[in-house]
Every structure is written in C-alpha cells, then in structure tokens.
TrEMBL record:
This is Integrase catalytic domain-containing protein. Residues 1-100 form the Integrase catalytic domain. SUPFAM superfamilies: Ribonuclease H-like. One of its GO terms (biological process) is DNA integration. InterPro entries: Integrase_cat-core, RNaseH-like_sf, RNaseH_sf. One of its GO terms (molecular function) is nucleic acid binding. It comes from Dendrobium nobile. Gene3D superfamilies: Ribonuclease H-like superfamily/Ribonuclease H (3.30.420.10).
C-alpha cells in the first residue's frame, strides 16, 4: 500500500505549528512547511464577521458579568438572524424565508399578527413568499454592492498611503508573531518598535530588534 504525503503545508504561526516537534516531523518527511505572515489565513470572511457580531452581542448583554455568557448565548443567537443588517437592510431570516420571524415577546404579549394568524392559509402564503424570494435576494445583492462602493469611497478619501522602507521603525502584530495565545482580549495588539533590515518582497520585510538581532520570521 502506497502512502500519499502532502508536498507543502501552509499554517498560521500558532505554537503547535512552529514548535520543534512539528517542524522536525515535516522536515523528516520532506514536507515544505510555510507559515503565513498573518496569524490566521483568510478563510470564510462571512463566518468571521458572524462570530464577531455574536461576540459583540454577548459583551453588550453581559457587561462585566462575563461568566454567564453560556446562559445568554441562546438569546444572542436568536437575535442575530432577526436583526436587520446595514448593507442589505434585511434580516438574515427574511433573506432565507422571505417572511418575518415571530419573536418570543409576540407570543407572550399577542400582537395583531399573532391574533389574526390563520393556520390553514399559512402554508400557502409561505409558498408564495418563497416564490418571490429570488427577487428579494437580488435586490439585497444590489444594496450590498452599493454599500461596498460607499465604504470604499469613504476609505479612499481618508486613506494616506505610507510606504515602508529599509531603516524605518515599525510595530509588529503580536498574534502574527505567534504570541496571541499568551494574552487575552484586552492585551496589546502590537509590540516593538523594530528596525526594517531588509525587504524580501514588496510588503514583506525582515526585522531587527533593539539589540540588533534579526527576527527569524518575516
């Protein structure tokens, strides 16, 4: 039976990927190990935004009582799909079913929608909404494109390009340097300053610390 091994492995700079045991393992099997410059390679941007929104919701509800996040998580997860997003001005729930969700408060304090609910006609109305769903999604995509254009124009007006040259003093992202696990959400995000010693390629540099020692990673 033949054994298939990867020719290259691309990872972030987590300690589990940079420690000697793993690097030696890859070297012995002739596997090229490549560490990305950033701490986490870009994966699913939508998932990252969703996780950030959920975390923000937890912080808002918990304030200083962070130990109770497990109890508040169901409420935040319920609030996420029924909250309108700025780019689309639609809720994720509506973009999925083309109908508004009935929130728990509408059940406890009956609204007009709940009081006039017709179970027999409900299925037919839901099917009708699903037939119109592609148009709703197309309109949402146009809104997202227009929103991205507005954000890009605003960013470009405020953005001042700054080229990094050899001899400049710069800061280094702590998480990208493989030190993210040593801190917490309130830890500093940057460390340094470091001296730019050489340019490997545009946007990638070799750095020296205050003692003149070259850092091992770009």
């Amino acid at each position: 039976m033949s054994l298939c091994l990867p020719a290259k492995i691309i990872t972030d700079k987590g300690t589990q990927f940079t420690e000697r045991v793993f690097t030696t393992f890859c070297k012995d099997l002739h596997i090229q190990l490549v560490h990305t410059t950033v701490a986490h390679p870009q994966t699913n941007g939508q998932t990252e935004v969703t996780n950030r929104t959920i975390l923000r919701g937890l912080k808002t509800r918990l304030d200083k009582d962070g130990g109770q996040w497990v109890d508040e998580l169901p409420n935040v997860l319920w609030a996420y799909p029924i909250t309108a997003r700025t780019p689309t001005r639609e809720t994720p729930y509506n973009l999925c079913f083309d109908t508004k969700a009935v929130i728990p408060v509408d059940i406890e304090v009956p609204s007009h929608r709940v009081q006039t609910f017709d179970f027999n006609a409900n299925d037919e109305k839901l099917r009708h909404n699903l037939d119109l769903l592609p148009e709703v999604r197309d309109e949402a995509m146009l809104k997202v494109a227009a929103y991205h254009q507005r954000v890009a124009r605003h960013y470009n007006r405020r953005m001042k390009p700054r080229r990094i040259s050899i001899g400049d003093l710069v800061l280094r992202n702590i998480e990208a340097a493989g030190k993210g696990l040593q801190g917490n959400k309130l830890s500093p995000l940057w460390e340094g300053s470091y001296l730019v010693a050489a340019m490997v390629k545009p946007g990638t540099f070799k750095l020296k610390d205050a003692e003149g020692k070259m850092l091992p990673q770009t």
